[in-house]
Design brief:
With 266 residues, this protein is of the alpha+beta class. It folds into 2 domains: 149 residues, no CATH class; 92 residues, no CATH class. It is globular, with a radius of gyration of 23 Å.
Protein backbone atom coordinates (compact mmCIF):
# COMPACT_ATOMS: atom_id res chain seq x y z
CA UNK A 1 0.00 0.00 0.00
CA UNK A 2 1.23 3.48 -0.86
CA UNK A 3 2.15 5.78 2.04
CA UNK A 4 2.62 9.52 2.39
CA UNK A 5 4.08 11.43 5.34
CA UNK A 6 3.08 14.79 6.75
CA UNK A 7 5.40 16.93 8.87
CA UNK A 8 3.87 18.60 11.93
CA UNK A 9 4.62 22.33 11.86
CA UNK A 10 3.72 25.56 13.65
CA UNK A 11 1.81 28.28 11.82
CA UNK A 12 2.46 31.67 13.41
CA UNK A 13 2.22 35.31 12.41
CA UNK A 14 4.96 37.92 12.73
CA UNK A 15 3.66 41.34 13.70
CA UNK A 16 5.21 44.80 13.73
CA UNK A 17 2.91 45.95 16.52
CA UNK A 18 4.04 46.56 20.09
CA UNK A 19 4.09 43.48 22.28
CA UNK A 20 4.93 39.97 21.21
CA UNK A 21 6.76 39.63 17.91
CA UNK A 22 5.13 36.29 17.07
CA UNK A 23 1.44 35.63 17.70
CA UNK A 24 -1.08 32.89 16.84
CA UNK A 25 -2.29 33.44 13.26
CA UNK A 26 -5.36 35.62 12.72
CA UNK A 27 -7.13 33.33 10.28
CA UNK A 28 -9.96 35.71 9.38
CA UNK A 29 -7.70 36.89 6.57
CA UNK A 30 -7.68 33.37 5.11
CA UNK A 31 -11.15 34.15 3.71
CA UNK A 32 -9.44 36.29 1.06
CA UNK A 33 -7.81 33.24 -0.55
CA UNK A 34 -9.72 32.06 -3.67
CA UNK A 35 -10.71 28.43 -4.13
CA UNK A 36 -8.54 28.05 -7.22
CA UNK A 37 -5.60 30.08 -8.48
CA UNK A 38 -2.28 29.74 -10.32
CA UNK A 39 1.14 31.14 -9.52
CA UNK A 40 4.61 30.94 -11.10
CA UNK A 41 7.47 30.92 -8.62
CA UNK A 42 11.12 29.94 -9.01
CA UNK A 43 10.51 28.64 -12.56
CA UNK A 44 7.72 26.32 -11.41
CA UNK A 45 4.07 26.71 -12.36
CA UNK A 46 1.67 25.90 -9.49
CA UNK A 47 -2.03 25.09 -9.71
CA UNK A 48 -3.56 25.58 -6.24
CA UNK A 49 -6.89 24.35 -4.88
CA UNK A 50 -7.88 25.83 -1.51
CA UNK A 51 -10.63 24.84 0.91
CA UNK A 52 -11.69 26.31 4.25
CA UNK A 53 -14.16 24.76 6.69
CA UNK A 54 -14.97 25.37 10.34
CA UNK A 55 -12.37 22.74 11.29
CA UNK A 56 -9.47 23.19 8.88
CA UNK A 57 -7.93 24.82 5.83
CA UNK A 58 -6.60 22.61 3.01
CA UNK A 59 -4.21 23.20 0.13
CA UNK A 60 -3.96 20.75 -2.77
CA UNK A 61 -1.12 21.85 -5.06
CA UNK A 62 0.14 20.36 -8.33
CA UNK A 63 3.18 21.83 -10.02
CA UNK A 64 5.73 21.37 -12.76
CA UNK A 65 8.15 23.19 -15.04
CA UNK A 66 8.36 23.53 -18.85
CA UNK A 67 12.08 22.75 -18.65
CA UNK A 68 13.82 20.44 -19.03
CA UNK A 69 12.09 19.06 -22.11
CA UNK A 70 13.31 16.45 -24.59
CA UNK A 71 12.63 16.72 -28.34
CA UNK A 72 11.57 13.08 -28.35
CA UNK A 73 9.49 10.71 -26.26
CA UNK A 74 10.87 7.22 -25.65
CA UNK A 75 8.71 4.12 -25.35
CA UNK A 76 10.19 2.38 -22.29
CA UNK A 77 8.93 -1.03 -23.46
CA UNK A 78 10.58 -1.20 -26.87
CA UNK A 79 12.88 1.84 -27.01
CA UNK A 80 11.14 3.46 -30.00
CA UNK A 81 11.02 7.23 -30.19
CA UNK A 82 8.63 9.85 -31.53
CA UNK A 83 8.48 13.64 -31.55
CA UNK A 84 7.46 15.22 -28.25
CA UNK A 85 4.21 17.16 -28.84
CA UNK A 86 4.64 19.24 -25.68
CA UNK A 87 5.48 22.86 -26.45
CA UNK A 88 8.37 24.53 -24.61
CA UNK A 89 5.82 26.82 -22.89
CA UNK A 90 3.81 23.85 -21.56
CA UNK A 91 4.36 21.84 -18.40
CA UNK A 92 3.15 18.55 -16.98
CA UNK A 93 1.93 19.17 -13.42
CA UNK A 94 3.01 15.82 -12.02
CA UNK A 95 4.45 16.90 -8.67
CA UNK A 96 2.18 17.38 -5.69
CA UNK A 97 2.17 18.91 -2.23
CA UNK A 98 -0.61 18.85 0.35
CA UNK A 99 -1.08 21.07 3.38
CA UNK A 100 -3.72 21.05 6.13
CA UNK A 101 -4.07 23.35 9.13
CA UNK A 102 -6.20 22.00 11.98
CA UNK A 103 -7.87 24.84 13.91
CA UNK A 104 -8.47 22.86 17.13
CA UNK A 105 -4.99 21.35 17.34
CA UNK A 106 -3.32 24.53 15.97
CA UNK A 107 -0.97 22.35 13.94
CA UNK A 108 -0.09 22.58 10.26
CA UNK A 109 0.53 19.29 8.42
CA UNK A 110 2.80 19.57 5.36
CA UNK A 111 3.63 16.71 2.97
CA UNK A 112 6.83 18.24 1.56
CA UNK A 113 9.21 20.29 3.72
CA UNK A 114 10.90 21.69 0.62
CA UNK A 115 7.64 23.54 -0.16
CA UNK A 116 7.37 25.24 3.24
CA UNK A 117 8.54 28.55 1.75
CA UNK A 118 6.03 28.22 -1.09
CA UNK A 119 3.09 27.81 1.34
CA UNK A 120 4.38 30.80 3.33
CA UNK A 121 4.60 32.84 0.12
CA UNK A 122 1.05 32.19 -1.05
CA UNK A 123 -0.32 32.86 2.43
CA UNK A 124 1.52 36.19 2.54
CA UNK A 125 0.60 37.19 -1.01
CA UNK A 126 -3.08 36.30 -0.69
CA UNK A 127 -3.67 37.74 2.80
CA UNK A 128 -1.13 40.54 3.15
CA UNK A 129 -0.11 39.03 6.50
CA UNK A 130 3.34 37.75 7.46
CA UNK A 131 2.60 34.08 8.14
CA UNK A 132 5.55 31.90 9.12
CA UNK A 133 5.80 28.09 9.21
CA UNK A 134 8.22 26.66 11.77
CA UNK A 135 9.08 23.10 12.83
CA UNK A 136 8.41 22.00 16.40
CA UNK A 137 12.07 21.97 17.40
CA UNK A 138 12.66 20.74 20.94
CA UNK A 139 15.57 19.71 23.13
CA UNK A 140 16.85 16.22 23.81
CA UNK A 141 15.14 16.20 27.22
CA UNK A 142 11.77 17.17 25.71
CA UNK A 143 12.21 14.49 23.06
CA UNK A 144 12.87 11.79 25.65
CA UNK A 145 9.91 12.96 27.74
CA UNK A 146 7.33 12.14 25.06
CA UNK A 147 9.19 9.16 23.55
CA UNK A 148 7.25 5.90 23.86
CA UNK A 149 9.24 3.55 21.61
CA UNK A 150 12.37 3.68 19.45
CA UNK A 151 12.37 2.31 15.91
CA UNK A 152 15.89 3.22 14.84
CA UNK A 153 19.10 4.71 16.20
CA UNK A 154 21.91 5.57 13.81
CA UNK A 155 25.22 7.36 14.05
CA UNK A 156 28.67 7.33 12.45
CA UNK A 157 32.33 7.68 13.48
CA UNK A 158 32.07 5.75 16.74
CA UNK A 159 35.72 4.75 17.25
CA UNK A 160 36.16 6.63 20.52
CA UNK A 161 32.87 5.33 21.86
CA UNK A 162 34.31 1.80 21.79
CA UNK A 163 37.73 2.27 23.33
CA UNK A 164 40.12 -0.64 23.81
CA UNK A 165 39.12 -1.49 27.39
CA UNK A 166 35.37 -0.77 27.35
CA UNK A 167 32.54 -3.23 27.78
CA UNK A 168 30.93 -1.57 24.73
CA UNK A 169 33.92 -2.60 22.61
CA UNK A 170 33.75 -6.23 23.70
CA UNK A 171 29.99 -6.25 23.02
CA UNK A 172 30.68 -4.84 19.56
CA UNK A 173 33.25 -7.59 18.87
CA UNK A 174 30.80 -10.26 20.06
CA UNK A 175 28.05 -8.80 17.90
CA UNK A 176 29.90 -8.01 14.70
CA UNK A 177 33.08 -10.06 14.77
CA UNK A 178 35.23 -6.94 14.29
CA UNK A 179 36.55 -4.20 16.50
CA UNK A 180 37.44 -1.54 13.96
CA UNK A 181 34.35 -0.22 12.19
CA UNK A 182 34.56 2.95 10.13
CA UNK A 183 30.82 3.58 9.96
CA UNK A 184 27.80 1.56 11.03
CA UNK A 185 24.11 1.89 11.82
CA UNK A 186 22.24 0.43 14.77
CA UNK A 187 18.63 -0.46 14.02
CA UNK A 188 16.56 -1.78 16.91
CA UNK A 189 13.21 -1.61 18.69
CA UNK A 190 13.09 -0.52 22.31
CA UNK A 191 10.43 0.09 24.94
CA UNK A 192 10.37 3.19 27.07
CA UNK A 193 12.44 2.73 30.24
CA UNK A 194 15.32 3.92 32.39
CA UNK A 195 17.95 1.94 30.46
CA UNK A 196 16.75 3.56 27.24
CA UNK A 197 17.09 7.02 28.79
CA UNK A 198 20.62 6.19 29.88
CA UNK A 199 21.54 4.87 26.43
CA UNK A 200 20.22 8.02 24.72
CA UNK A 201 22.13 10.13 27.23
CA UNK A 202 25.29 8.19 26.42
CA UNK A 203 24.81 8.76 22.71
CA UNK A 204 23.98 12.43 23.19
CA UNK A 205 27.06 13.03 25.37
CA UNK A 206 29.24 11.11 22.92
CA UNK A 207 28.00 13.34 20.11
CA UNK A 208 28.74 16.47 22.15
CA UNK A 209 32.32 15.38 22.90
CA UNK A 210 32.92 14.37 19.28
CA UNK A 211 33.02 10.58 19.70
CA UNK A 212 30.13 10.16 17.26
CA UNK A 213 28.40 12.32 14.67
CA UNK A 214 25.18 12.36 12.62
CA UNK A 215 23.09 11.03 15.50
CA UNK A 216 19.51 10.27 14.44
CA UNK A 217 16.91 8.70 16.74
CA UNK A 218 13.51 7.77 15.32
CA UNK A 219 10.60 6.75 17.49
CA UNK A 220 6.90 7.13 18.25
CA UNK A 221 5.17 9.43 20.71
CA UNK A 222 2.03 8.69 22.74
CA UNK A 223 -0.16 9.49 19.70
CA UNK A 224 1.94 7.15 17.50
CA UNK A 225 3.28 10.10 15.52
CA UNK A 226 6.79 9.56 14.26
CA UNK A 227 9.29 11.73 16.09
CA UNK A 228 12.85 12.35 14.97
CA UNK A 229 15.77 13.64 17.01
CA UNK A 230 18.56 14.72 14.68
CA UNK A 231 21.55 16.09 16.56
CA UNK A 232 19.99 19.03 18.45
CA UNK A 233 16.70 19.28 16.59
CA UNK A 234 13.47 17.40 17.09
CA UNK A 235 10.64 17.06 14.58
CA UNK A 236 7.43 15.05 14.27
CA UNK A 237 5.72 13.31 11.33
CA UNK A 238 2.52 11.40 10.72
CA UNK A 239 2.12 8.72 8.03
CA UNK A 240 -1.11 7.83 6.24
CA UNK A 241 -2.11 5.51 3.42
CA UNK A 242 -2.45 6.89 -0.10
CA UNK A 243 -4.13 5.92 -3.34
CA UNK A 244 -2.91 6.92 -6.79
CA UNK A 245 -4.61 7.27 -10.16
CA UNK A 246 -3.55 5.53 -13.37
CA UNK A 247 -0.96 8.25 -14.00
CA UNK A 248 0.74 7.68 -10.64
CA UNK A 249 -0.57 10.84 -8.96
CA UNK A 250 -1.97 10.88 -5.44
CA UNK A 251 -5.77 11.26 -5.19
CA UNK A 252 -6.12 14.53 -3.22
CA UNK A 253 -9.57 13.84 -1.79
CA UNK A 254 -8.45 10.44 -0.48
CA UNK A 255 -5.34 12.02 1.03
CA UNK A 256 -7.43 14.61 2.84
CA UNK A 257 -9.97 12.06 4.09
CA UNK A 258 -7.28 9.68 5.36
CA UNK A 259 -5.41 12.51 7.09
CA UNK A 260 -8.55 13.84 8.80
CA UNK A 261 -9.48 10.33 9.90
CA UNK A 262 -6.00 9.78 11.35
CA UNK A 263 -6.16 13.10 13.23
CA UNK A 264 -9.59 12.30 14.64
CA UNK A 265 -8.08 9.26 16.39
CA UNK A 266 -5.27 11.22 18.02
Amino acid sequence: MEKISFHLMQLIEETAQLGERFIPPDLQYIDDIPQNFEITLDKFYYDVTFEKTAEYIWFDVTFGSPAPRDDELTNVKDGTKKNNPRDISEAELLKQVFCLYDFSKQILYLSNLQKKTFIETILKQRTGRNFIIKPFYKSKDEFVEILRSVNEISFTEARNLFDMNSRQRQALIDLSGTDSPENFTITANYSRGEKLYNFIDLLHNSRVNGSIRDLVIRGLDRDKFEIIFNNDTFSRKIEISSQKDNNGKHLPEKIKQNLLQKLSLC
